[in-house]
Design a protein that fits this description.
Its main location: membrane. The protein is mainly α and 251 residues long. It is built from eleven helices and no strands. Helix 1 packs across helix 3, helix 5 runs antiparallel to helix 6 and helix 6 packs antiparallel against helix 7.
């Protein structure tokens, strides 16, 4: 990609060069005091990161609406959401405490909130509202500890971040197995699945460009692979209802 960006940087018309440098310097900083491939690469990463954060604020709203409309969380793995939210919460604390740019992890804030809403809805329609209250209290307590270095020192937080890789991967497997068992994706939102895949692909680029941390990169890379499997299942089972009654009974 660098040769393409070099070509773009060298061929920006002179009247536009100075305003472009001024704008990029204000938005990105001194790294873009001159138009180079590295500057444009960083600009692309910032734009992608901001887009991911913005899209994440609504990415799971269709899933929430689908559950509310059906009055059921049938076909949606509760374990998947519990594991994924745990992974998001640890990653959010790790990125924040390391001072990484918000554009490289901001979506985890919105994902955590939406995941908790979906989890509570699944429990509510499964007649387990009391369990939902306990889950909410547990995540609130864990979040407080993760953001406080007096409770969880940085070395322990790094270890927990390493554990988010198997946790994140494990969060996808129950949903994949549920889809395969039911022969359908139930109330799983196709919009959320495909946007999730697009976001994870873009995150690989922004992580390589702005975050020099292999723990985060490998987590996104492996997660992207399972997101591809989920997206494939959505296409495979498109329009198929599967055994909805059994799915609802299991849920």
């Amino acid at each position: 990609m660098d040769p393409i960006l070099n070509l773009v940087a060298q061929n920006i018309p002179e009247p536009l060069r100075e305003p472009a440098v001024e704008l990029l310097t204000k938005v990105i900083g001194s790294q873009c005091s001159t138009l180079t491939a590295s500057c444009l690469k960083l600009a692309v990463s910032k734009a992608l990161g901001s887009g991911i954060v913005a899209a994440s604020s609504i990415v799971k709203v269709p899933q929430i609406l689908s559950i509310l409309s059906a009055g059921s969380g049938a076909g949606i793995s509760l374990l998947s959401y519990l594991l994924e939210t745990t992974s998001f919460l640890i990653s959010l604390a790790y990125n924040f405490r390391n001072g990484f740019p918000f554009s490289t992890y901001g979506e985890t804030v919105f994902m955590c909130i939406q995941n908790l809403v979906i989890t509570l809805l699944i429990l509510h329609f499964g007649r387990k509202a009391g369990v939902g209250a306990g889950v909410l209290a547990l995540f609130a307590s864990a979040g407080y500890a993760l953001f406080n270095s007096n409770y969880i020192p940085h070395d322990l937080l790094s270890t927990l971040q390493l554990l988010t890789i198997p946790i994140s991967l494990g969060s996808k497997i129950p949903q994949i197995l549920t889809n395969a068992r039911n022969g359908s994706t139930g109330q799983l939102s196709a919009f959320a699945v495909f946007n999730y895949l697009a976001g994870s692909l873009a995150r690989l680029y922004t992580t390589l460009t702005e975050v020099d941390d292999p723990l985060i990169f490998w987590g996104f890379l492996l997660s992207t692979g399972l997101n591809v499997v989920l997206a494939s299942q959505v296409l495979m089972y498109w329009g198929k209802k599967g055994d909805a009654s059994k799915a609802k009974k299991r849920q």
